[in-house]
Amino acid sequence: MANAGDKRLVKSKSGLRIVTMRDDYGSPFLIPEPNWVPDNEYVHCMQCQVRFALMNRRHHCRRCGRLFCSRCCENKVALPRMCFIDPVRMCGSCTKTTKQENDFFDKHLKVLLNGCEFYVVDDINSEPSDNSTIFFCKLSTDHRYLLYESETQVRDSILVCKVDRVQVITEPSSPVMEEENTNVRGLLLTYDSENGQTFVKMVIPSSTHKQGLNWISAMQRAFRLLYENRNQDQ
C-alpha cells in the first residue's frame, strides 16, 4: 500500500511531473500549476499585443498560465517548484523569477538538507553555556520539518509550514532582519505549535561559525519562498 509521501508520475498539459501521493505531503516550497487562460479569451499576445494567426500561434506560460506569442514565450526553464521533469515554456517575467528561485533549489536547499550544529534554547532571553547541548539541525528530506538531533536529548521537530518568522540574531543579541552581517551569531524562529506561538533560539557554536552563517542565510531564503506562497494563497 502506498504511503501519502510516496512519489508518483503524473502527466499534465504542461508536461510530466513527479509529485507526492497527497498534495499536503509535498514540499512547502512547491507551487501549484496555474489555470490556463482560455484560448478564445484573447486574440492578441498578452505582452506585445501582436495578433495571433496561423503563423503566430498562441503559447501558454507554464508558470503563470497567460497567453503569449512565440517570441514572448520562447524560454524553456527548469521549474522545480512545480516538480516538472523537463524544462518548460515560460514568458520573460516568469523566466526571471524562476531563475532566481532555482538558485535556492540548486544551492541553498542543499545547505539546509546537509544541516549544521547549533545550541538550541527555548528562552529567548537565555544564553547557552559551555555545558549546553549542541543539536545537529537540518531540513528533512521531504522539506516538511526542521529536525533537531542529539545523542543526549530529544527535541520535537518543527513543521516548516508553521514557521511565522525568521530573525537573525546579532551582537549584542538583539534580533534584526539583516542577512549579511559579520556579527551574526544565531537565529530566532517563531512558529505555531499546539501551545500557541512558540520561539526557539539557535546559536552558532564558535567552532562552526562559517557553516552556521551559510545555514542561516539559506533558511532566510527558504522563508521568503514560504512567505510568497502564503501571499499567493490569500
TrEMBL record:
SMART domains: FYVE. Keywords: Metal-binding, Zinc, Zinc-finger. Pfam families: FYVE, ZFYVE21_C. It comes from the Eukaryota. GO terms for molecular function: zinc ion binding. InterPro entries: FYVE-type_Zinc_Finger, ZFYVE21_C, ZFYVE21_C_sf, Znf_FYVE, Znf_FYVE-rel, Znf_FYVE_PHD, Znf_RING/FYVE/PHD. Residues 39-99 form the FYVE-type domain. PANTHER family: ARRESTIN DOMAIN-CONTAINING PROTEIN D, ZINC FINGER FYVE DOMAIN-CONTAINING PROTEIN 21. This is Zinc finger FYVE domain-containing protein 21 isoform X1. It comes from Octopus sinensis (East Asian common octopus).
